[in-house]
Design a protein that fits this description.
Blueprint lengths: L4 E6 L7 H14 L4 E6 L1 H4 L6 H17 L8 E4 L5 H10 L4 H5 L2 H9 L6 H16 L4 E3 L5 H18 L7 E3 L32 H9 L16 H14 L3 H7 L5 H27 L2 H30 L5
Parallel strand pairs: 1-2, 2-3, 4-5
Helix pairs in contact: 3-12, 4-7, 4-13, 7-8, 9-12, 10-12
The structure holds tryptophanyl-5'AMP.
Length: 328
């Protein structure tokens, strides 16, 4: 039987955080044996916000290395850079014509980003979710492993695909989201009511963060004055730490509560820092090793794009035919 297919991607728009790792990358690594996985560095998405060309260029290569360092073995899956496969931009245009302004106006990420980048509310920022839908639908993906913040975009993707399929018969596979129980919403350590984000270094931990700083940031993380470790409504700081620890160790909230019964936040934070450091150290070492072998990284993203192009072009052919375009 053919394996089901997975598609997911990360923007090269800043240093990856443990939010990206626990919400996405760590889960991807666990799915590569069971699924036909396609993972992209989504550089077309990144320019919806201004990027420095040199930094963007370096970050794309760094992201390929971080994918592999996190266990995304390129021998077992496809890793490529989005701009190397023109079909993404092509399908995105087509789907723009099947997506309503009202649907895009409802997107919370658009509202959030346009308030943070008020001097650059460009059309790409607005139609960003359509490009994301194109990414997924091009590969006829069954499953899309993402963090919780991408749920709304995924729903839009399904709506657009269903609309297209209604008009032209079955064209696209309708994808399902894969959002893990623990780690899907890693919050800012200093402001745990806000999502941990690449753009807020103070409350976030980078995947490549200096190890001493990882421990320091966990120790300084916001908690509360209750003094016991239990997942409870409204305890944003503690709930966040439980989910970080749970996502790293794959323990449930119940198991974590039992483990720290009668213990204080000091012990809890020490355990989190140790678990996190043990997880990050080998990733960082592998990353350094990979960055010293740029030829290898190039061979990964070149052969990845070759395979991606083949699948994506097949979908474009199908879409063109359905719409009524003359065959190339
Ligand atoms: P991006 O680049 O912002 O984030 C990459 C992945 O990391 C997850 N994530 C988080 N998970 C838990 N806690 C957090 N604090 C946290 N921050 C980020 C995101 O949910 C995501 O899974 N639009 C996407 C990129 C994209 C994509 C796609 C994803 C473009 N095309 C097609 C899947 C399929 C984005 O901006 O993710």
């Amino acid at each position: 039987m053919e394996k089901k297919r997975i598609f997911s991607g990360i923007q090269p728009s800043g240093a990856l955080t443990i939010g990206n790792y626990l919400g996405a990358l760590k889960n991807w690594a666990q799915l590569i044996d069971e699924y036909d996985c396609i993972f992209s560095v989504v550089d077309l998405h990144a320019i919806t916000v201004r990027q420095d060309p040199k930094e963007l260029n370096e970050r794309c290569l760094g992201l390929i290395a971080q994918y592999i360092a996190c266990g995304i073995d390129p021998e077992k899956c496809t890793i490529f850079i989005q701009s190397h496969v023109p079909a993404h931009a092509e399908l995105s245009w087509i789907l723009n014509c099947y997506t309503y302004m009202g649907e895009l106006e409802r997107m919370t990420q658009f509202k959030d980003k346009s308030s943070r980048h008020a001097d650059n509310i460009n059309a790409g920022l607005f139609t960003y979710p359509v490009l994301m839908a194109a990414d997924i639908l091009l590969y006829q993906a069954d499953l899309v492993p993402v963090g919780h913040d991408q749920k709304q975009h995924l729903e839009l993707c399904r709506d657009v695909a269903e609309r297209f399929n209604r008009i032209y018969d079955d064209t696209f596979k309708i994808p399902e989201g894969y959002i893990a129980k623990m780690g899907a919403r890693v919050m800012d350590l200093q402001n745990p009511e806000k999502k941990m984000s690449k753009s807020e270094p103070a409350g976030s931990i980078a995947l490549l963060e200096d190890i001493a700083s990882v421990t320091k940031k966990i120790k300084r993380a916001q908690t509360d004055s209750l003094g016991y470790v239990k997942f409870e409504e409204g305890r944003h700081g503690i709930n966040n730490l439980i989910s970080i620890y749970g996502a790293v160790t794959r323990k449930t909230a119940d198991e974590i509560e039992n483990e720290f019964q009668g213990k204080g936040y000091g012990d809890f934070k020490k355990a989190i820092a140790e678990a996190l450091v043990a997880e990050l150290e080998p990733i960082q070492a592998k990353y350094q090793e990979l960055m010293n072998n740029k030829d290898y990284l190039k061979s990964v993203y070149t052969s990845g794009a070759d395979r991606a192009r083949e699948i994506a072009d097949e979908t474009i052919r199908k879409v063109h035919q359905k719409i009524g375009y003359i065959e190339r």
